[in-house]
Amino acid sequence: MIKIAKIIDLLAQTEYISGEDLADQLGVTRAAVWKQIEVLRELGYEIKAFPRKGYLLCSKPDRLYPWEVGKGLNTQLVGKNMEYYDELPSTNLQAKEMLGSLSEGTVILAESQTQGRGRLGRNWFSPPGIGIWMSLVLSPKLPPVELPKLTLVAAVALSQAIFEVLGVRPLVKWPNDLYLNGRKISGILTELVGEMGRLEYLILGVGINANQKLEDFPEELRDKAGSLAMICGKQIDRKVLLRRYLELMEEEYFRALREGFAQTLEYCRKYTFTLGRKVVVNGGVKTLSGTAVGIAEDGSLILEQNGKEFKVITGDVNLINKEQE
Predict the structure, then answer these.
(1) pLDDT tens for residues 189-228?
(2) In this structure, how many other beta carbons lie within 10 angstroms of the beta carbon of residue 304?
(3) Is 133 in contact with 112 (CB distance < 8 Å)?
């Protein structure tokens, strides 16, 4: 079986390459090369054949194929194995169904989700080909009390990746969203899998609005959701952004395991969309309100109400005031 990444590399190295040269370098027959070229065309690669010249790679599809995302990926663990799908109900659901056969660091990618979910069971709008919908499988050796902080780790890594690739820095809305220019551009859903008192896996589901136009969003989301393309005014290379995110996610994850979460929490405090604002926090059982005044060392949100401070360990945060930073 010819590795797809290998034949794409050969096609990209020169303007034209003959079927004979491809066969020689791949160690296969010309018939096998032709079959693989047809497979690539079915996958969306534009490859033309010219008599006495050979094959010409004209364009690549805007798809998050693992061999494209993985090319040049500088990680030891995260993304070394990727599972790719055109469509899934949910990447988190797929990850849970495959647990046991997946190694730590596996990334599940889908071009679209039909049942993408956010916090508190909300739907996550996941149209095909214009966002990044993924789940990352981890198995951290951490005390249970530390695990919620990994949601913040994922948010910090993504904020840094977007800043490095696009030059704009999203703010972290505790505990699991990223905002740019007052619009939500990413959400993170963390799910734990294991028996009582023993974690086996942690699944980080990450949704990134990359190339949506305003009219692509459902009407009820148009006043609060946004995409990186809308804000930056240009088409986003999803592969480049995803590759850098996986690299920084690994860096932040390894640092947290090695040194703790101090650097993660400091980033969340510095680049915050939450602190200093009046908020309502839905904890599922009860609702709390107050002014968000800090993030504690345990990762909880500190609220102040009537001169008293109290902690919120987890919950869905809604801003009362609408001012934008």
Answers:
(1) 999 887 656 678 999 999 999 999 999 998 988 999 999 9
(2) 14
(3) yes
Residues belonging to the chain: 325
* Cβ contacts of 325 within 8 Å, gap of 6 or more: 171, 182, 273
What is the pTM for the complete model shown? Answer: 0.92
Identify whether the C-beta of residue 323 lies closer than 8 Å to the C-beta of residue 276: no
CB 110, CB 88: distance < 8 Å: yes
Angle at alpha carbon of residue 70, lines to 19 and 94, rounded to 5°: 115
Cα 112 from Cα 130, distance rounded (Å): 9
Contact present, 18 and 49 (Cβ < 8 Å): no
Question: What gap in Å lies between CA 176 and CA 324, rounded to an integer?
Answer: 18
First to last CA, the chain: 53
Residues 6+ apart with CB under 8 A from 167: none
Work out the angle at residue 266's Cα, subtended by the Cα atoms of residues 265 and 267, and round it to the nearest 5 degrees. Answer: 90
